[in-house]
Amino acid sequence: MNKKFLFVCGCPRSGTSYFQAILVWHPAIALGTERFNLRLFARALMPTDFERERFFRMETGDTWYDDLSHFPWRQRRAEAHYDSAAYVGDKVPRGYECFDHLVTHFPDVHFICLVRNVFDVAASYESRKRDVADWNPDWGPRIAVEHWNASLKAILAYADVAPILPVFYEDLVASEATVDGVAAFLGIDPEPLRTGWKNKARLESQPKPGAGAERLTAEDVAFITAAADHDALTRVTQLARRIADRPVPSFTSRHSSRSQA
């Protein structure tokens, strides 16, 4: 299989699904939606699982859902793009916990990690705990900051080992320029990502970053403020800015129009 591998990860509730909805517009990317998350966390996932026949055949123990029609629109995109794709991979929140396995077993692997304001992540954990039946009942705001810290530490630990691009959710929803940085990182035509960004941005309005603190108790806000790894956040921010400064690849108009077909 002559393809590179791409994994999109990040602390849960950090915007990985939002970001994936942009990426799936690109014909150079065939991305699953937590397609192999159980296999990954069992450290059984291998490159052969992404060969066409296996990628589109569900097996017991692959993931938490029963069949590939669970995410129909994203699945159709993955199937349509697979043959032309330069990258094949998966969107797996908390996939950063398995960086060691992925780096060891997957050649030409790239990671994009979503990072979001910690109070917004924590507030989303609290909402999920209250309103979603299959959400882990132990995952509240204080677990959120643990996961958030772990994601930052994993990015920093592997930044010199494999290509890792941190993408800040707030930057992503605010500006099309963020997807240009993604295109530069992956070496692909930015135009399909711009199209995906415009479609996604048009459909969803986002609250002000940090507004989640207003939905948390004062005690949880104080805990998160004290527990959040601000030094790691500063270093990840510097890493993201450095990578994002790379020039966007040049593509001909003919190639760009074909990519959007």
Descriptors for this entry?
261 residues, 5 strands, 11% strand
Compose a concise summary of this entry.
The protein is an alpha/beta fold. The chain contains 13 helices and 5 strands.
- Kindly provide the name of the CATH class: Alpha Beta
| Largest sheet, strands/sense/barrel | 5 strands, parallel
- CATH fold name, please? Rossmann fold
The average pLDDT is: 91
> Which class do the helix and strand fractions yield?
alpha/beta
Strand content range = 5-15%
SSE layout:
Blueprint: E1 4-10, H1 16-23, E2 29-33, H2 37-41, H3 52-55, H4 72-81, E3 87-91, H5 99-105, E4 109-115, H6 118-131, H7 141-158, E5 164-168, H8 169-174, H9 177-186, H10 191-203, H11 218-227, H12 230-244, H13 253-259
Parallel strand pairs: 1-3, 1-4, 2-3, 4-5
General description of the model:
With 261 residues, the protein is of the alpha/beta class. The chain has one domain: Rossmann fold. Helix content is 49%, strand content 11%. It contains 13 helices and 5 strands. It has helices at residues 16-23, 37-41, 52-55, 72-81, 99-105, 118-131, 141-158, 169-174, 177-186, 191-203, 218-227, 230-244, 253-259, and strands at 4-10, 29-33, 87-91, 109-115, 164-168. It has a 5-stranded parallel sheet. Helix 1 crosses helix 10 (191-203) and helix 7 packs parallel to helix 11. The two termini are 24 Å apart. Residues 253-261 have low confidence and may be disordered.
